Amino acid sequence: MKVLGIESSCDETGVAIFDTRENRLLAQALHSQIALHAEYGGVVPELASRDHIRRLPLLLRGALTEAGLSANGLDAIAYTAGPGLAGALLVGASFAQAYAHSLGKPAIPIHHLEGHLLSPLLADPAPRFPFVALLVSGGHTQLMAVENVGQYRLLGESVDDAAGEAFDKTAKMLGLPYPGGPQLAALAERGRTGRFPLPRPMLKDGSLDFSFSGLKTAVRETIQHPNWREEDASDLAADFQQAVIDVLLAKADRALRQTGWKQLIVAGGVGANIALRAQLTAALAKKGCTVFYPPPALCTDNGAMIAFAAGLRLQANCAPLADAIAIHPRWALETVVGG
Ligand code: KG4
Ligand code: ZN
Q1: Distance 140 CA to ligand 2 centre (A)
Q2: Which long-range contacts link 204-208 to residues 24+ away (Cβ below 8 Å)?
C-alpha cells in the first residue's frame, strides 16, 4: 500500500509517501516556516495556518513526481490530527480529507507523537517491540512504554515546561534567534560545563516525571546577576544543556530498569541534540541497553513519520478512519486505540 502522510501541526509543512510493501519511503517533501516566523521570535499561529495552505498543494505535487505516482496510485491519505496548533491542524485535516474524498480513498487521522514515537523503526538497525520511548519535543516530554503499534503506556511526563520549550525559552533569554533549541545547542558546543551550578529538577524524587521550569528560572537569575558577562553565554548554555541531559538520562535509565527492557528510542526535536545522543548512547550501553534514534532528517516534524505510522496501523489492521474533520489541539497519546 502507498500511503500519503501530511504533517501541519506547527511550523513545518511535511508531505511524504510510504510504501508498506517495499517498507520504504518513496518521496518526502518538507517546507520549514522558520524564515516566516523569525522576525516575531516564535511561531505566529495564523501565519502558520496560511502558509500551510499555500505550501501543501506544491509539496504534494513534488512528492507525487518524486515517487513517480499519479494521485490514483495512492491507497490512503494520512494526516496529523493533533496535538498541535488548532488552525494549522485544521488545514492539514481538511486538505487530507478533501483529497481522500476526491480519490475515494480512506483518510487516516494520526497522533503527532505516535509519528515521532514510531519513526525510529525507519532507522537501520531498528528497535523491536517492546521498548521505552523518550519523547522530547517542543510541547511534550514523556516516557512511554511501547508494547506494540497503538499500545502505549505513559510512564512519566513533564509537570510544567517541555524540554524543547525550556531550550527555546532559555535561548530567548540569551538573545538567540528563533528557533532557539538548535541555536542554544550550537552555542553550548562552544562552551565549557561546570561553571554555573544549575538545578537538576526532580532528579532524585523516584518518579519518572520531569520539571524544567525551575531550570529556566535559574538561568534567568544567573543572567540578571550584576556579575553576568555576555561572553559567558556559551558556558551557561553548556551548563543548561548538561542539566537537561542529566535529567533525561537519569529518568530514561530509571524507566528501563522499571520495565526491565533493554531498548530506548528517543524521538522529537530535542532528540536531534548531538550531546544528548552521545551521552545517552554511551551511558546506557554500559548498562547493556541500546538507544535508537530516527534517521536525522526525521527527528523534527515531517510528513514521513505520519505516512509511516499510518502504514504500520494499516498493516496491523488498526488504522482509524476519519468520519469528520476532527482535530485535537490537546490530545493524550495513551488514549489512542491500539491494535
Ligand atoms: O518535534 P519538534 O520538531 O516539534 C514539536 O513537535 O514540538 O520539536 C521541536 C523542538 C523545539 O523546541 C526545538 O527547539 C527543539 O525541538 N530542538 C532542539 C534541537 N533541535 C530541535 N533542542 C535541542 N537541541 C537541538 N539540536
Ligand atoms: Zn513534533
Answers
A1: 9
A2: 207/156, 208/143, 208/155, 208/156, 208/251, 208/254, 208/255, 208/258
CA of 105 to the centre of ligand 1 (A): 33
- In order of 58, 144, 224, the CA distances from 292 in angstroms are 33, 14, 39
Tell me the pLDDT tens digit for each residue of 22-81: 999 999 999 999 999 999 989 999 999 999 999 999 999 999 999 999 999 999 999 999
User: In the chain, at which residue ranges do the beta strands (DSSP E only) sit?
Assistant: 2-7, 12-19, 24-32, 76-82, 107-111, 131-136, 141-148, 151-157, 263-267, 290-292
The string of pLDDT tens digits covering residues 137-150 is: 999 999 999 999 99
User: Phi first, then psi: what are they for 326, rounded to 5°?
Assistant: -110, 130
pLDDT digit string (tens) for 260-279? 999 999 999 999 999 999 99
Ligand nearest to the CA of 189: 1
Distance 181 CA to ligand 1 centre (A): 6
End-to-end CA, the chain: 18
Q: Are 211 and 203 in contact (CB under 8 A)?
A: no
Q: Which three cell numbers stand for residue 17?
A: 509517501
- Give the relative orientation of helices 180-189 and 163-173 as an angle to the nearest 10 degrees: 70
